[in-house]
Each structure stands twice: as C-alpha cells, then as structure tokens.
Amino acid sequence: MKDVARAAGVSHMTVSRVVNGDAGVTKERAVRVEEAIKELGYQRNDLARQLRSKRPRTGTIGLVVDDIANPFYSALARAVEDEAHGRDDLVLVGSTNDDPHREQEVVAAFCARRVDGLIVVPVAGSQGFLATQMALGTKVVCVDRPADGLEVDTVVVDNRTSTESAIRQLLDGGHCRIAYLGDRQDIWTARERYAGYLAALAARGLRPAPAYVKHGVRSAAQAAAAVRELLALSDPPSAIFSGNNLMTIGAVGALGDEGARIALIGFDDFPLAERVSPAVTVVAQDPIGLGASAAALLFSRIDGDRSPARTVVMQTRLVLRGSGEIPGPSLARSA
Amino acid sequence: MKDVARAAGVSHMTVSRVVNGDAGVTKERAVRVEEAIKELGYQRNDLARQLRSKRPRTGTIGLVVDDIANPFYSALARAVEDEAHGRDDLVLVGSTNDDPHREQEVVAAFCARRVDGLIVVPVAGSQGFLATQMALGTKVVCVDRPADGLEVDTVVVDNRTSTESAIRQLLDGGHCRIAYLGDRQDIWTARERYAGYLAALAARGLRPAPAYVKHGVRSAAQAAAAVRELLALSDPPSAIFSGNNLMTIGAVGALGDEGARIALIGFDDFPLAERVSPAVTVVAQDPIGLGASAAALLFSRIDGDRSPARTVVMQTRLVLRGSGEIPGPSLARSA
DNA sequence: GCGGGCGTCGGGAACGTTAACAACGTGTGC
DNA sequence: GCACACGTTGTTAACGTTCCCGACGCCCGC
C-alpha cells in the first residue's frame, strides 16, 4: 500500500479510500491510484483490514457437518454457500465424522480465525465448548440436530412424527414385521427416528422383536450387512425402515443381492430412488431449505438480531414409491 | 492479551510465549498465565498473528469447484479436507457453477483472505486472473481440468482414452447407433470426452449422426429431456454415452420412463448404478484420489517445493454392469 | 572475587490496515 | 473583506500479535 501511495504520489490514506470506494477522492487522483494498483498488482490485505476495522467482521462463517461427502450435507452446504455468496461472505467447511474430539478441533480452529458465525450439526456432548465460543461472541446456529441444553437457533425436521407416519404407512399396508436400521443412539436424529418407529408400533399394540432393531449402523456397507443378517433370520421382517440415505443405499444393495422382495422405507431421499428395484418410499427432507434457513438465521444474528433463540421445524414429505404402499411384500415394480 | 498479562502479573510477551508453547518460560509463570487465560476466556487472535508472523501462513487453503453439491466434487472436497486436517489447515469452499465471473469473485475473495493456496477446478478463460494470483505468491493446483496455458500442477484423469474404450465397448457389443450427451464445450473434460467418443467411432470408420450429439447438457433434467428427444427420433440410438454423473442419472430416469431398453454408459460412477434398471456401465473416476493428490501437491508447494509444474494423470476404471456388455439392446437385468 | 555465558523476561517496533482528527484550499454569505 | 463551512488530503494512533534485542539474575570457571 505504501508502494502504491508512493507510485501514485499520494498518501496511504488516499489509497485506502480508493480501494474501499470511499467518496471524497478526486477523480484524477483516484485514476492515478488505480493505475498504480494495477501496475504493482496490489491487493488489499483483509487480515489487516479486519484487525483494525471497528466492527470486527471477518466476512467468513464456518460450516461444521458430519461428512461433507454425504449428499445430504453437501446439498445443505451449497445452500449455505449461496446465501453467504449473496452477501460476499465466505464459508469454511469442516467434517466431524460425528467425533466429538474432531468437532472440538474444527470449531476451535474456526473460532481462532475469528469467523463471524458457525452453522453446526452438533455431535453429542458438544454443548460445552459451543457455549464457550458463544460467550466469546461467535454466533451459532444448529442444523439437523439441536445442541442439548443450549439456547441457540436451531433448524430441524420433525424426525419423530415423520418416521411415525412412514411406519404407519407400512402398518396400513399390512406389514407387522418391520425392522429398524438406525445410526448411533447418541445422535439425536437417530433417537428421534427410533422413537417414532416405536410409537407407530405401540399405537397398534406392537413391539419390535429385538432381532429386528439394528442400532449403530454408520455406513452403506454396515447397512447391507445388517440387512443380510435380517434376511437370514428364521422369521425375517417383511419391511425395513432405514434411518438415513447411506443406510437406504446399502439396504437396496443387499436386498437386490438376495433378490428379496421386502418393503423398504428410508429417511432422506436420494437420486434414482424411484428407479432402483425395489423402488424405495422415502421420507424426503429438504437439505437446501435446511441450509438456507440456517444461513438466514445466522446472518440475521450476525447483523445484530438479539431476539430469543428460535427453533425452526421444517416439513418433510413422504414420497410413496412402490415399497410400502400396497399390502404384503412389495410387488409394485412387477405390476 | 494485555488483560491476561496484567492478571498474571507478567508481560504480554510471556503470555505470547505460553500461548505458543515456546520454550523458555518458567513452569510457575506458565501455570499462572494459563490460569489467567482460562479465567478470562482468552483466545489467540490468528488474524493478528498471521499479520505479524514472519512466514505469512494463514493455515487456510481455498477449494474452488463447479458445485459442491455434486457428489463428485463433495467427495473430492472431503479428501482435500482430510489432507488439510492432517496438518491443521482449514478449507474454504466455493462453488462457481462454471461461471467465469463467479469464479473470479471467489478466487479474489479467497486471495484477499490470504489463503496459502488454491485447489481449483478451472472454468474456461480463468488462466488470466489465476496467473495474477500466482504471481502474488499464491500456490495453485488445478484438479479435474487443466488451466489452459498455465504452468501449474494439475491432477486429471485420461478422459479421452477412457471414453474411447467405453465407446469401443459399445461398438464391440454390436452397437453402432451411439448417442452422446455432454456438457458445455468450453469445459475441457467435455471436449476431451467428446474427442474420445469421436475417435472410437472414427476407428471403425463411423461418424455420429448430428441428431445423436447433444452438447451443453448441464443438469439431470436437461439430460432427461435430451434422452426423450433421442428416443423420439425416427431412428433412435441403440446406446447412449452420458458425459457425467448428473447426466447419467437424468438419462436413467428418462430411459425408465420410456421403458426403453437402450444401453447406457456413463462417465463417473454413482451409488446404486448396479441396481437401477437399466444397470449402467460406467467409467469410474476416483474423486477421493483426485482430491488427495491435489492436496498433497498443493501442500508440498506451500512447504516450499519449487520444482517444475507436474501433471498427474489418474487412472479410471471401466465398470461393466449390464449395459454395453452384450450385443444389441441391453437385456442383462431380465436375464 | 569477578567477568562472562546462559537462561529467562520485558520493552519497543513492526505487520498493513482503518478511525479520528487536523490541515489546507476554495467558495460563500454577510 | 472576513469568518466560516465544506470538500479534499495527510498525519497520527491503534488493532493484537510476533520479532528483535537488551536487561537482569544466576551459575560457573578462573
């Protein structure tokens, strides 16, 4: 900047004003400064800018998700990025693998960079250090799951109710041997979905056979293995609920392998769900909507909104596709 | 920091040393400082740190992709993030939508934040400002596509050859009416894949009917529409090559709608490609490998590697799945 | 006993920018 | 003709940290 000032024969303040498009610089001088900038390839140093700036905004937010490679989270990330781009903000992305330790590392690293805010898919037990960071002024919005016991804006879907109606769909179709595939029970969404599953069964006076319930499924491969176990039972289920997109994909694979004709309902939609065999009925979430809402909430906080913490519950959509819509084992695709 | 120093009864320098784990501070003082830090909730300001620091590393890199919501790029992003996490670096993510203007905005914003380096999926015509940033010291690695005429590390796959062998597979299967679905021709991968398509046909003395070639397909929906157009031709193709994962998904959808039995080969693998009907043979890329290689290359540059620019060409894998492996229209799934 | 090396600590400057204000020249109103 | 406002420009200080160097006390060897 000093070099530019010297080259243009002005003071560094004039350069600063030109760079920031401030009013109050003569046309002639501004042009001279801009020429010098171009010639010297000068570029404003946002680090110093933010350090000195009165309202210390870094124009950067952090997005902390389970796994950015999961299409659900990457769609959400894209929505967040678009909202941020609209106000010239940047997005740091971090994956936690649902590991509290890695989450803490990522959050701490983001905060050391002085992000203006954080959109977090919280892992169990992360309220503590999130609260610490919030006390230091970082705005936080939770998405997909709440942070237990933390007064913070949250965007979620009604996991329990929508799972309940998905299971009810199966029950109405005549299924009563319904298996459950779910993630680790320390994950809120898994607990909610399991609760919905139990509630739907209980409403008909049913309880699941212990062998039908598979917790802690963390990948498509594990889901496939779990499904093969279910199929190997002497009394296999006639329908399976799978707790997220990865599990559903794994389950579809395993069911196909076995040539089994078992109804499948999954949480989360995925491309070509209507084209695989068996076709899969899903509880469709709207990851883009979740991300956009979370970003909007966060930016309003960053812009000074001090109202009490809000919780936004977004709607899901039950998309019927063969599985689960007709009585007995699904035969929809052969009809 | 001043507050911490005062609270601990030491100078700000001692605090700095403790925070950075520097040697040369008495145990007793270090403990006192750490207590003060904990009590006051002090957190190092990396902005100021990086501003003053001699080797100006921000410990942050930028990843610029077409669309982070595309599973190909999100898998790549995850690989980059893992490499970065291993050395305590952070990743800024930006999507360009293959829009040169947005790409320039994103790159400029990243560089203003003084990222140590950039992993870029370059859009056509971006060599200019990338060169500018490189001259200013930002390390750059291109991935998925080269930046035309730019001396820069690059990680790509052999698009042309692998498309050629995919098409040859169809030709060997007896297909000669093979349609092509491809992205905008200003995108390098699209040009390469198209060249491979033409080369494979030319090797048999064939040329595609103009109606069989669809350029500029940018989404699954557009691919589906293109496929429907192809099917509506008086002389429809017996096989279709689709130029990326999104197009393949769209094509599968459209083919299913029409109940058509047309061989489909796609570039990029996708989940459940073996389960959809028709099953899809694919040229599988390894997005994780691409991302990891690009990140490794970038970090070696950041760490001072000044050797000439390298180009890494990664292998693809032709995954045969029904479509294209038997003569005539694919009947694999009904076998 | 005393000089010098070493380990520990602090003071001041500097990084590149913006905030605050002062200085300057010009035009305007009385 | 003079005070005053206003628009433009420059000067100085500050943001929070690290770098550089000097100061201080201590121990050791002569």
Secondary structure blueprint with pairings:
2 copies of one chain form a homodimer.
Chain A: H1 2-8, H2 12-19, H3 27-40, H4 46-52, E1 60-65, H5 71-85, E2 90-95, H6 100-112, E3 117-120, H7 127-135, E4 139-143, E5 153-157, H8 159-172, E6 178-181, H9 188-203, E7 213-214, H10 220-232, E8 239-242, H11 245-257, E9 263-267, E10 281-284, H12 287-302, E11 311-314, E12 317-319
Parallel strand pairs in A: 1-2, 1-3, 3-4, 4-5, 5-11, 6-7, 6-8, 8-9, 9-10
Antiparallel strand pairs in A: 10-12
Helix pairs in contact in A: 1-2, 1-3, 2-3, 5-12, 8-9, 10-11
The structure holds a DNA duplex (30 and 30 nucleotides).
Q: What spatial order of strands do you see in the largest sheet of chain A? A: 2-1-3-4-5-11
Secondary-structure element order of chain A, N to C: HHHHEHEHEHEEHEHEHEHEEHEE
Structural class of chain A: alpha/beta
Mean pLDDT of chain A: 91
Termini separation of chain A comes to 73 Å
Low-confidence stretches of chain A: 324-335
Largest sheet entry of chain A: 6 strands, parallel
Oligomer: homodimer
Principal-axis shape of chain A equals elongated
Cα radius of gyration of chain A in angstroms: 26 Å
Beta-strand content of chain A: 15-25%
- Give the largest chain-chain interface (CB within 8 Å): A-B, 55 and 55 residues
Helix percent of chain A reads: 40-55%
Number of helices of chain A: 12
Count the strands of chain A? 12
